[in-house]
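Sanity check

After download, print the first record. It should look like this:
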Amino acid sequence: MSPAARAAAPAATDRRVRILDAAERIFAEHGYDGATLRQVASTAGVQLSLLGYHFPSKLALYSAVFERRQYVNEQRLERLETLGDPRAPDALDRLVAAFMDPVMALREQGTWYRRLVLREAADPSSPRRPIIRELFDPMARRFIAALREVRPGRPEGWYEWSYLFAVGALTQSASDDRLANLTEHPAAATPNDELLRGFVTAAWRHG
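Expected structure tokens:
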């Protein structure tokens, strides 16, 4: 590689990261159909043509936003692999931790991503895209199977719905806009990881 090419490589990587950061926010705010590539380019501070150089289509960019965060789901599955005896007294707590902790570890940098996941999962048009089907459903089936082992004997459908309800709580916790309108106490609008953990654990234990 020539010196000029070596010098250009970090700049190209930085531009790609800026584009993905901008796309994550714009798609989270406006949804797939409402967002435009022009908005993404403007937010990223790049020319529209440069965005097209990195990502040949809107769907390619959208998919890349999710693929960049796929390591979170991989971490969740890695923790699921070490769950151990499903009959152990702390098995449910460890299952909830595997489900939640890699997502919560994103903190501020993951706020837009969690909002985007919530929007994509709730979007009636999402089946037309491969995101949920290819990047989330395989993991979901693994967690549902683990939940079935940890909490055996529940009615059919309980495991699938319980998982989806927990996903809703986890992703909704990234959005405090409405919560600010529902409380007169500013401290209540601060995300509370342990409250969320207790909510999911109680739902899976007593539901």
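If your output differs, re-run the checksum step. Summary of this record's structure: The chain has two domains: 3-66, 69-206.
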